[in-house]
Amino acid sequence: MNAQPQLGWIGLGNMGNPMSSRLLEAGYPVAVYNRSKDKEKALRTAGATTADSPAALVQQADVVFLMVSDDQAVRDLFTGPDGLLQAQASGKLLINMSTISPGISEEMARLSQQKGHTYLDAPVSGSVKQAETGQLVIMVGGEEPAFQRAQPLFEHLGKLALHLGPTGSGNRAKLAINTLLGFYTQGLAETFLFAQQHGLKLEDMQTIIANGAMGNVFSKIKGEAIMAENYQAAFALKHLAKDLRLAKAEGLNTPLGEVVHDTFQQAEPTLGEEDVIAIMKHLQRD
């Protein structure tokens, strides 16, 4: 029986924490690195070890997962003074689950290959609850053998992992699905706003949506958030605004795409730290 691979995890935010916890619970040895050290405490308690830098982490791990905020954070973690690619190591599988541009993945894949590593882009669809329960959808770009190597690990993190093509394919799929998320979010907010402006009870509107063809988990959760005026971030508005910028940079120029992009850019300065459905507050101000 083969020994369990040593795993590394970089980025212990709302998603990275429960995802790395699931790998620990599955019996894998996990080492973690996070710039904010206080976020490592819960994982240490659960049995993880820690590393002082990405370079130190990749030296001890066979597979390294990353889930960080943006292109610059990825570049720093790979090419910074103590970055992944500065270590005297080779043959590692680097799985970047961040929502970033396809271009940065293509660049990091080339640099990783030069160091003897293999790179996958593997962003996810789902939020904190799906991360906690292993129900994420994982969209993967990169070489097929690397995907097959990672598949047993993906099975602990998601209900579905799809290999979509070469490097960057996972990132492009994530930008596409988050564009749809933008449509849903603004559409739901505008529906509630229209109903509210015409004297309808939001509770009744929620019931109508839930019992019709447009009902889904997202409309249930976010409709309830609107009614409760609960805008605490499960997925912060600033992140969707960033994803829509990335999609636009990749060529998003459809009528709905343009509108949703512009709406979220306008809302980000004041509502960026709140949940995406806080777009309702932005629309109410207009």
UniProtKB/TrEMBL annotation:
Name the domain of life this protein comes from: Bacteria
What keywords appear on the UniProt entry?
NAD, Oxidoreductase
Asked whether the keyword Magnesium is assigned, the reply is no
Name all 3-hydroxyisobutyrate dehydrogenase-like NAD-binding domain ranges: 168-282
Q: Pfam families annotated for this entry?
A: NAD_binding_11, NAD_binding_2
Cite the InterPro entries for this sequence. Answer: 6PGDH_NADP-bd (IPR006115), HIBADH-like_NADP-bd (IPR029154), HIBADH-related (IPR015815), HIBADH-related_NP60_sf (IPR051265)
What region holds the 6-phosphogluconate dehydrogenase NADP-binding domain? 6-163
Tell me what this protein is called: NAD(P)-dependent oxidoreductase
Identify the species of origin. Hymenobacter profundi
